Structures are given as structure tokens and as C-alpha cells.
């Protein structure tokens, strides 16, 4: 009776919830309950396929579904190559390269790199640079500051921004983030006395600058007074300066030269093209107080050919310049409009790129005013050696022509290839 009550309960509950057939074992045999008739049949149970999900259920494979943009920018994790037979072969990238790529994609989220090995940091910087992470307006500056705080001169030890005033105006904060620079070339940028970058030169971050080139920057005595104030008063700032170029700044007078006497370590100075009134008095003053001797020939230190951008961020500076030039390209289409205005007699102001010439009119008027210290051997070497006489000049020309002839004949000999050589080249 208890078994029949349990079966009737199960049959009654099946009307509300269909749980499938019910099997009952009795006397060593397995019975199935017939739900329709309410009885029990002695049948062998059939194998019924087991399904975990219903027929309407579908499975979708999702990878990085929460960040589709990062998935699109993520490079492939495999390297595809071809075998000698021409078959496609792929191999997985190393875990190091995968982690390096992921960190470089999120380099602006790094908290600090202080104490991190510089060998790995250089590879990380190159990977982020290849992704142009440092050209982004906000995140690029934040990422660059993490590297400069930790590695200083390794990121950039020399920076040449000659005639690149657009880069200075667009990337001023990034330029100010560089630390421990030893050489800085700001020639022909027309910065003036009030520019923020000139004020940054007096900060402790650039106290390591040894070579500073400020040719043709519209500087005056007020700018020199402001730039030398930390050295004169606090003995800080540009106290380690060795080479200084102030040429082609007509507003600098004898008063401004007096401020330069605080640079006791100065070895080379160029003040050609300045507005000096008493040149002889300035020459004597520089020689008596800081030991600088007037040079009769141009010095190689002011040739501007040795100043280059060097460091990890060398390509980054080029990327900044290219991005700025690309942004200014649409303005080239205005040339036709300017030509039309000229045709109809209308005037139009054209802003041309200021080019820094090697010899300025002011330089010719005042002469060459370059100074050096006699006890420094590498500073006062002339830019061009004087020729002893016309006879020696003729002999040098003959030697140069003879060397060119021998070089030309030697090239012709190397270009004569045999049949065996051509067969060897064709095998490659």
C-alpha cells in the first residue's frame, strides 16, 4: 500500500511537473511507470541521449568582449613564416614579447619605473614608441614622464631643436619633462626673453646642461639677466655650462655680457652679431675675469653639425615633427588662393618659415667674436685650416684628381665580373 501511495503521488505530481519516466526496481527487475495508463510495465529501459542544454540554447565564443577597441589594436599572437617548400608555418610568440606588447599598449597606466632594469625598460620604450604612444596629447606626456623620472639622460642626453619652433610650441610640456640633458640646441627659434622654455633652463632639472646654443632667438639684456640670476645669486641653474652660443642677437649689449661673467666654467663663447658698443673693452673684460681669449678663426664648437638628438626618444622627437607637419599640410592648398589675390592686386600676408643662415649681416658688421680658454685643447680648434700658399693648393688639387682617377679605375676593375661570378649571383 505504501508503494502504491508513493506511485500515485508521483503520478499526481507528474501532472504539474514533467520529470520524464520513473524507474522502479522490484525483485531484482527494473520496471517503468506508464504515465498514461497509470500502471507499471516490465520493460528494459532504452538509452536516451542526455542533453545539458535545450535545443534553443546557443553558445557564442567571446574574447575581449568588454574591450573591442583593445582587441582591434592587439597584434596577432602568432608569427607566420614560409618553409622552403612554400608551406605556411606559424609559431607562437614568446611570452616576453606578448607581455611587452600588452604593457606598451597601457604604458600610461604604469605607476613608476624607478629601480626597473634599464635593459628591459629600453625595449619597453621602443615598443611604446613603435605604437606612437608618446604622440598622444595627455597619455603620451604621462608615459614619457615615467621614463624620464627613472632613467634621465638615457631617455635623452642631447636635444637639437634648431629651427623647430613649431615643435617647441606644440610639445612644450614634453620637452620640459626631459631631465639631465647635456646639450640643448634652440637656435633660430625666435623665442624671446619671456618664453617659458628659457625660464625652464634655470630649473634644477636642466642643471646638467653643458652646451647651450641660443643663436638668433631675439634675446636682450633682460633675458640674460633672468637666465643667469640663479647662478649669480644661488649658485644653481646653469652652473655647469661649458659652451654658450648667443650669436645673432642684436639686442644684447655690453651690459648683458656682464651677466655672463658668472659662468666660471665657461670654455667657449660666441657673441658674434650682438649689439656691442665697445668691443675691445668686452674682449679685455672676458679675458681678465673668466680667462676667455678671442679667437681669430671660427671654432668648431659653433658649427652646429655636432649637435644631434641622441637617446631613446630620438625617434619620438621625429614623430612629433612629422605629426605637426602632417597637420599643417592642408594649408598648402591655400597657395592658389594667394596667387589669385596677387593677380587681382590684393595684398595677403604670408607667413614663411624662418631659416637660420650661417652668416648674418650683423655678424659681418661686428666681426667674429668667438672666445675660448687656452688650456682647453678640444675647444679652440679652428673650423677651417688656413692654406699655406698657392703652390701647396695646386699640389692638393693634383693629388685629389689622381685619387679620384685611381678610385674610378678600381671601381671599373671590380665591376668586371666573370661568368662564374654571375652564376654565383643568380643562385641567390
TrEMBL record:
The keyword Repeat applies. Belongs to the LRRC42 family. The gene is Lrrc42. InterPro entries: Leu-rich_rpt, LRR_dom_sf, LRRC42. Signal peptide: none annotated. This is Leucine-rich repeat-containing protein 42. It comes from the Eukaryota. Keywords: Leucine-rich repeat, Repeat.
